[in-house]
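RECORD TYPE: inverse folding
INPUT: structure tokens
STRUCTURE:
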């Protein structure tokens, strides 16, 4: 016995789970994904979910608006037992959610009810969580609010960026998804309501979220910088006397121990070069900038940056106020 599973998704996060289902004994009658996107110069972006469906010769539907009556009819004809949704990018209305016999279930990159919303992976790192994971829940009209069928946990590794964590969470989704589908198939799944008192939100990341606030602690700044990778990246502007300001992407930092820190008193954002290290004052100590990319240049270590951009006695990084 197997289920008919309709897959709905668009981004890389969906791939391991979808591949696991396609390679399993379950049947996939239809894959629904976002329309192909055209970038600069009319360059066509590759839709990785569509590519995966083509690899397994599964029909693909790419509606601009998935809740339109004609799309609902095509989805009904697929006669799926369950919808599996991951990184789809459109809101599913009640009439669509009512179609599958067993319901529509979403793979979400956090331990719900924490970090409901579009950017759960980024917020888990940004807020300094030690543990995160993936939750599968039944989709309901309110944002990420449905009862949970299961969760899988993992530690956030030291130095791990959002991009790296997202890939690890995606890999967890493969075996986890098959386990959850097995529960649904056997009728043994238990749906656990989310604790509304523990809800936190993770809204879509905006470009301005990358601006570094040097008044924060060294740990908070490190978490922020890692959370903003690969997009929009953490930004700051270096100001020096008698030199034009330089907008920089700060890619990697390390909190300095007491014995390593410059002895001079300084306000947050003050930059200096000590022991071949580019150092910046935070709200509670000093950071070593290990990787930095001046605008229009390649990324480099702190020593190479200081050689190319002499700091002087009053150099400081300030928040990037560019649009």
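DESIGNED SEQUENCE:
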């Amino acid at each position: 016995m197997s289920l008919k599973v309709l897959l709905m998704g668009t981004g890389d996060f969906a791939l391991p789970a979808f591949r696991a289902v396609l390679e399993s004994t379950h049947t996939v009658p239809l894959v629904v994904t976002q329309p192909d996107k055209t970038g600069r110069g009319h360059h066509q972006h590759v839709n990785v979910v569509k590519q995966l469906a083509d690899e397994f010769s599964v029909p693909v539907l790419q509606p601009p608006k998935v809740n339109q009556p004609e799309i609902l009819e095509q989805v009904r004809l697929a006669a799926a037992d369950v919808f599996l949704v991951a990184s789809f990018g459109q809101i599913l209305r009640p009439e669509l959610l009512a179609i599958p016999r067993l319901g529509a279930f979403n793979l979400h990159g956090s331990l719900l009810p924490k970090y409901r919303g579009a950017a759960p992976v980024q917020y888990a790192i940004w807020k300094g969580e030690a543990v995160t994971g993936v939750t599968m829940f039944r989709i309901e009209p309110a944002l990420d609010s449905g009862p949970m069928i299961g969760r899988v946990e993992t530690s956030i590794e030291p130095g791990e960026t959002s991009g790296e964590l997202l890939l690890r969470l995606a890999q967890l989704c493969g075996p986890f998804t098959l386990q959850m589908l097995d529960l649904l198939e056997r009728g043994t799944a238990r749906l656990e309501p989310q604790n509304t008192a523990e809800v936190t939100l993770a809204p879509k990341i905006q470009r301005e979220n990358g601006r570094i606030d040097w008044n924060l602690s060294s740990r908070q700044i490190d978490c922020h910088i890692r959370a903003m990778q690969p997009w929009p990246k953490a930004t700051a502007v270096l100001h020096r006397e008698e030199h034009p300001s330089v907008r920089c992407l700060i890619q990697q930092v390390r909190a300095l121990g007491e014995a390593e820190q410059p002895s001079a008193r300084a306000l947050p954002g003050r930059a200096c070069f000590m022991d071949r290290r580019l150092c910046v004052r935070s709200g509670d100590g000093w950071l070593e900038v290990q990787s930095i990319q001046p605008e229009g240049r390649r990324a480099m270590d702190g020593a190479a940056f200081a050689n190319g951009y002499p700091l002087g006695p009053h150099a400081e990084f300030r928040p990037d106020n560019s649009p």
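NOTES: The first strand starts at residue 5 and ends at 9.
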